[in-house]
Amino acid sequence: EDQVTQSPEALRLQEGESSSLNCSYTVSGLRGLFWYRQDPGKGPEFLFTLYSAGEEKEKERLKATLTKKESFLHITAPKPEDSATYLCAVQRRSNYKLTFGKGTLLTVNP
Amino acid sequence: NAGVMQNPRHLVRRRGQEARLRCSPMKGHSHVYWYRQLPEEGLKFMVYLQKENIIDESGMPKERFSAEFPKEGPSILRIQQVVRGDSAAYFCASSPGVGREETQYFGPGTRLLVL
Questions:
Q1: Alpha-carbon gap, residue B13 to B33, rounded angstroms
Q2: Is residue A93 pLDDT above 90, yes or no?
Q3: Chain B contact probe: residue of A31, A98, A99 with most B CBs at under 10 A
Q4: How close B80 gets to chain A, by Cα (Å)?
Q5: Is residue B97 pLDDT above 90, yes or no?
Q6: Nearest Cα residue to B58 out of B38, B44, B71, B72
Q7: For the CA atoms of B25, B81, B62, B69, what is the dihedral angle to 10 degrees?
Q8: What is the pLDDT of residues A16-66, one digit of tens each?
Q9: What is the pLDDT of residues B6-43, one digit of tens each?
Q10: Of A48, A44, A52, A36, nearest to A93 (Cα)?
Q11: Interface mutation target, options B106, B110, B111, B113, chain A, most CBs of A under 10 Å
Q12: Most confident of A94-103, B37-46, B83-92
């Protein structure tokens, strides 16, 4: 069975304090690893898809990387508006459903 | 370009009633997925549909739950005889279903409360 573990469960940062979120996964035949952002009371908002080990993608203050066992979401100089729950999910080659981790709740204080 | 639309956004039902949740995918998307998010738990896959076909319903409870995606109109997730344990946020996602691009884009969700 596919498994996704995210750490830490919660992270508090000061504005401008860079850090990383971790997503460890076990999946049989990875098609892609996805990062989403979820604000309270809203649906997940797509951020990145990574398909193979060594791949990196960037968007504003966020950078996602992928190895064969884990993915990192690096947040550089975060702002309060980056506060949200960040979700990681994996998708198998053999089907299309996403298996999600429980998320990391990020709070960025001004 | 409108995103995934879900309605209602909030739904209150008494035990034993039926709940109908609707989802309109993004324009040009032919694949629809339903997920459930229970308090303090992650998003869990329920069912994957294409027009007029259920592709994978491995995550959907065998009883009381059903889903459809007709040729015309939105996808419907139907829960019969709701119980308190059905209280959750239900999210719909859609994807293009073409080539390698299978990113799923999520709607705002329907929050179901069973009294």
A1: 23
A2: no
A3: A98
A4: 24
A5: no
A6: B44
A7: -20
A8: 999 999 999 999 999 999 999 999 999 999 999 999 999 999 999 999 999
A9: 999 999 999 999 999 999 999 989 899 999 999 878 89
A10: A52
A11: B106
A12: B83-92
- Rounded percentage of chain A residues whose pLDDT exceeds 70: 100
Q: Which residues of chain A does B105 touch, with a Cβ-Cβ cutoff of 8 Å?
A: 46
**Structure tokens belonging to residue A31:** 């098609």
pLDDT of B1 higher than 60: no
* Measured CA distances, A100 to A12, B38, B71, B114 (Å): 22, 13, 30, 25
Q: Which residues of B63-86 are buried (b: 16+ CB within 10 A; e: fewer)?
A: eebebbbeeeebbbbebeebeeeb
Contact across the interface for A49 and B103, Cβ inside 8 Å: yes
Chain A, nearest residue to B58 by Cα = A97
